[in-house]
Amino acid sequence: MLRRMMLAVHVICSVGWIGAAASYLALGLAAQFSQRGHLVRAAWLAMELTGWYVIVPLGCLALLTGLVMALGTPWGLVRHYWVLIASLLTSFALLILILHMPSVTASARLAATADDPTAARLAGDVLHPAVGLLVLVFIAVLNIYKPRGLTGFGARPRSRRPAPAEEGS
Amino acid sequence: MTKEPPPDGDRPAPPRPETGVRPGVPRWVKTLGIVVAALLLLALIVMLASGGQHGPDRHRGVSHAAAGAAVGLTLLMGTP
């Protein structure tokens, strides 16, 4: 029951992260290519809010529930290559996201105070969300296909579980 | 005695019998490693080519820099 609930939260957060990243990319493209200052300003303000209040929390929850799922099921965290790689890529994506967000805040503040012609000249944010989206989709594909392959740790024979009598001693 | 549930996509496949041979790294992991290494190298080259700038100033846009350069040139050349 708890495992099912954790799986549901994990899937919702992971898929939500992908959707939010796609929305962020649309805003970043609008900020990059629009010549209208008010639209660029609105896009940057929306990117800051979406980033801090939707994408970062979803990313943290996706990583956390993924780690719990891996450690709490027979898959393990380092037994199968696909679990290990998905965990590493998720951690890397979240790290880059958190390191990138202060720069988004700075740009949003700049856009908020700039007049329309200056705001229109601001560049958008395309590369980070585009690469991030590709990484997230790849992680989702890994999770669905679960390609075979045991790591050196996973290939080792598991140690015998202690009998209940031994556990109590 | 209950039977084990059939293997599905939600559970790992049962381990194969011990053969004494360690399984190698799967081909898809090797391919992924090469692709990731190439992408990281590309990212490094792009960052170095852009002068190592990787901060909020990056979003100020090319047109901003061009406008600054135009102002500088105007000051140097003098205006009528």
Could you explain the architecture of this structure?
The complex is a heterodimer of chains A (169) and B (80). The longest helix of chain A is centred in the first third of the chain and has 35 residues, at 37-71. In chain A, helix 1 runs antiparallel to helix 2, helix 1 packs antiparallel against helix 5 and helix 2 (37-71) runs antiparallel to helix 3. Chain A is 79% helix and 0% strand. Chain A is elongated. Chain A has one domain. Chain A has 169 residues and is mainly α. By secondary structure, chain B is mostly helical. Chain B has a domain at 25-50. Chain B has 2 helices and no strands. The chains are: A mainly alpha (169), B mainly alpha (80). Chain A binds chain B through residues 73-75, 79-81, 85, 102-103, 106-107, 110, 121-125, 146-150, 152, 155, 157, and chain B through 9, 11-13, 15, 18, 22-23, 25-26, 28-29, 32, 55-56, 58-64, 67.
Unreliable spans of chain A are: 161-169
Q: What is the gyration radius of chain B calculated from CA atoms?
A: 29 Å
- Name the average pLDDT of chain A: 90
* Main β sheet profile of chain B: none
Calculate the mean pLDDT score of chain B and round it: 64
The computed structural class of chain A is mainly alpha
What portion of residues of chain A is helical?
over 70%
